[in-house]
């Protein structure tokens, strides 16, 4: 760094500018200006373009010596001057000129810094001529801007690279559906040609293409798309399935992100859907195919065990009993599989009617009495005197009750008591099946209602079930608008509750009056 | 007093079990057919009081057989379907075809004759 004293003591006599004392007032003034500034600056003065710079400018170049000060620029600047000469000479003609993003490395071991150099003509203030006496160049360090731009570019490249290498299609749209960015897969999934998709377009145009192909269902594309847009604007997020006419099934997930933008993620789920359908078909077919031989087996065993085919020895009777019990188990399993299949695919039909739960549960308890007696369990009904009216499907509710009673009996020891209780709690009917058996282990509680869940399958008692019963119960109760849960507050045994909304008394009375 | 039954099923084992089940009632006399076509052929000769008809059979299935039976003189005897697909939907669909009833598989061998008599007496 040099200071004003170093500058004054410079051997100016050896330069074309001559001794300081003889300089024009304007040159003194300009030197005061640049030497007082922290901003890197230099001047080219006079006809041989004498080079005058300040300490900040010297620092850019990493020089310490002042031997270039006051010398003609063409003697000191080297090849750069050759490049810039024409442009700088034009500034001497009165035109401004900016050299942008010029990279300089002060030292080998330092990173490149970038500068804008802004050249301005200095007119002759003394008015002795209308010529330009010098050129002032002010430089601005723009390294941060350049680095940020570079980082942004790199980020974009990484983003594009990432987006084009995921299997999901991704698109980002503004709140008004202006398309901001998208990846290659997105175009592939929806079958858009590269020229059909561009930044800044309205995604509605793309939706119209899709709707026009019939991929969003039958009807006028404009109407379909407008309805879809309206639906999208009314929710934060959503998932929809698009069945394309070429057979592709897309799962499209939408989420509102910052600044009102939507992120769309599409997934090709064709294979998954096909596999799921095949699996369902397989379960359905196998179950039906199993019924025919099972009918023959259980039928034959039923006739033999009834003694209709002649007397049996005691040993043969025991064996037939084993065979019969096990064929019944298979029948229950097949029926459960078919039920779960129907419930999952939504093909299970519900015949909703107003039902008196007190009467229905009384019937259910009677129906399950033989099973309880076989297990040596005392099955008790604790019902209400008043009718408890709900909307439900008679057959399905009996199925739920049979499942719960069957579980309770299986988990009770001989001589145990199972109670079926009915109460009204506020606007809901609560059915409870209470046993005093081994209870439900805590580790098992959260998957109790999953398919094929059985606790401790080594226990012979538990093996009697298919592991589908509670899953079926939950599906049925859910579809009837109710809830089913295990009471975790009881100290012993297991208590299951089912709650269904009560039908309002007024409504019931009105209907009865009509009939 | 005895009733004549025609049991139609393509499964030989089921035919045998069903026949024995039905004959637990001594007043039921049973003949079996292994296909819809065989059943149509047996009708004029056997003149059953009730036809028990399997739904899923190769070539001519239950509903197709029922249609043919209805074309016979006098519209033919009442028909009760026996089916593994005895869901609510299926049962309603079969009843709509003009069946007198639907019995699900697997049937209870000790109850089959009772069920059939109920249809005969109604």
From TrEMBL, chain A:
GO terms for molecular function: kinase activity. SUPFAM superfamilies: ATPase domain of HSP90 chaperone/DNA topoisomerase II/histidine kinase, Homodimeric domain of signal transducing histidine kinase, PYP-like sensor domain (PAS domain). It is an enzyme of class 2 (transferase). Keywords: Kinase, Phosphoprotein, Transferase, Two-component regulatory system. Its EC number is 2.7.13.3. The keyword Transferase applies. It catalyses: ATP + protein L-histidine = ADP + protein N-phospho-L-histidine. The keyword Cell cycle does not apply. Residues 285-504 form the Histidine kinase domain. CDD domains: HisKA (cd00082). This is histidine kinase. It comes from Croceibacterium selenioxidans.
From TrEMBL, chain B:
Coiled coil: none annotated. SMART domains: REC. Signal peptide: none annotated. Pfam families: Response_reg. Residues 4-120 form the Response regulatory domain. This is Response regulator. The modification 4-aspartylphosphate is found at residue 54. Keywords: Phosphoprotein. InterPro entries: Bact_response_regulator, CheY-like_superfamily, Sig_transdc_resp-reg_receiver.
């Amino acid at each position: 760094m040099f200071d004003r004293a170093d500058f004054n003591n410079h051997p100016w006599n050896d330069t074309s500018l001559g001794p300081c004392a003889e300089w024009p007032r304007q040159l003194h003034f300009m030197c005061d200006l640049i030497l007082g500034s922290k901003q890197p600056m230099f001047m080219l003065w006079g006809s041989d373009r004498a080079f005058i710079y300040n300490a900040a400018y010297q620092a850019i170049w990493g020089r310490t010596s002042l031997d270039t000060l006051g010398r003609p620029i063409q003697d000191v600047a080297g090849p750069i001057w050759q490049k810039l000469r024409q442009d700088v000479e034009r500034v001497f003609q009165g035109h401004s000129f900016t050299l942008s993003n010029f990279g300089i490395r002060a030292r080998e071991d330092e990173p490149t810094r970038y500068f804008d150099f802004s050249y301005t003509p200095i007119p002759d203030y003394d008015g002795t001529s209308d010529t330009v006496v010098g050129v002032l160049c002010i430089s601005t360090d723009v390294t941060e801007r350049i680095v940020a731009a570079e980082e942004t570019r790199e980020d974009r490249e990484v983003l594009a690279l990432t987006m084009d290498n995921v299997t999901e299609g991704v698109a980002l749209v503004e709140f008004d559906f202006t398309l901001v960015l998208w990846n290659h897969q997105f175009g592939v999934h929806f079958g858009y040609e590269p020229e059909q998709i561009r930044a800044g377009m309205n995604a509605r145009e793309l939706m119209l293409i899709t709707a026009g192909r019939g991929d969003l269902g039958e009807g006028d594309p404009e109407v379909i798309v407008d309805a879809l847009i309206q639906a999208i604007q009314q929710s934060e997020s959503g998932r929809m399935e698009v069945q394309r006419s070429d057979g592709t099934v897309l799962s499209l997930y939408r989420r509102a992100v910052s600044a009102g933008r939507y992120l769309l993620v599409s997934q090709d789920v064709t294979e998954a859907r096909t596999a799921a359908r095949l699996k369902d078909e397989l379960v359905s077919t196998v179950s039906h195919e199993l019924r025919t031989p099972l009918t023959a087996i259980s039928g034959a065993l039923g006739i033999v065990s009834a003694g209709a085919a002649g007397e049996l020895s005691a040993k043969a009777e025991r064996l037939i009993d084993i065979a019969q019990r096990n064929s019944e188990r298979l029948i229950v399993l097949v029926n459960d599989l078919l039920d779960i299949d129907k419930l999952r695919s939504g093909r299970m039909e519900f015949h909703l009617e107003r039902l008196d739960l007190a009467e229905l549960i009384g019937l259910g308890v009677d129906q399950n009495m033989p099973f309880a007696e076989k297990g040596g369990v005392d099955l008790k009904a604790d019902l209400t005197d008043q009718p408890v009216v709900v909307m439900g499907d008679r057959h399905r509710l009996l199925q739920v009750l049979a499942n719960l009673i069957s579980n309770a009996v299986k988990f009770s020891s001989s001589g145990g008591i199972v109670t079926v209780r009915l109460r009204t709690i506020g606007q809901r009917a609560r059915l409870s099946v209470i046993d005093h058996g081994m209870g439900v282990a805590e580790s098992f509680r959260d998957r109790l209602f999953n398919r094929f869940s059985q606790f401790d399958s080594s226990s012979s008692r538990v093996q009697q079930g298919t592991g589908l019963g509670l899953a079926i119960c939950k599906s049925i109760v859910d579809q009837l608008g109710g809830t089913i849960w295990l009471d975790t507050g009881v100290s012993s045994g297991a208590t299951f509750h089912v709650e269904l909304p009560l039908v309002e008394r007024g409504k019931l009375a009105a209907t009865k009056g009509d009939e | 007093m005895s009733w004549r039954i025609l049991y139609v099923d393509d499964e030989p084992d089921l035919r045998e079990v069903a026949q024995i089940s039905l004959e637990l009632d001594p007043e039921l006399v049973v003949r079996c057919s292994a296909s819809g076509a065989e059943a149509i052929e047996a009708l004029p000769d056997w003149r059953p009081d009730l036809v028990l008809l399997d739904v899923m059979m190769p070539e001519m299935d239950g509903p197709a057989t029922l249609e043919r039976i209805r074309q016979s003189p006098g519209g033919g005897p009442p028909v009760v379907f026996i089916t593994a697909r005895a869901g609510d939907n299926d049962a309603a669909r079969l009843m709509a075809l003009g069946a007198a009833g639907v019995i699900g598989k697997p049937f209870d061998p000790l109850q089959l004759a009772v069920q059939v008599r109920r249809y005969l007496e109604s």
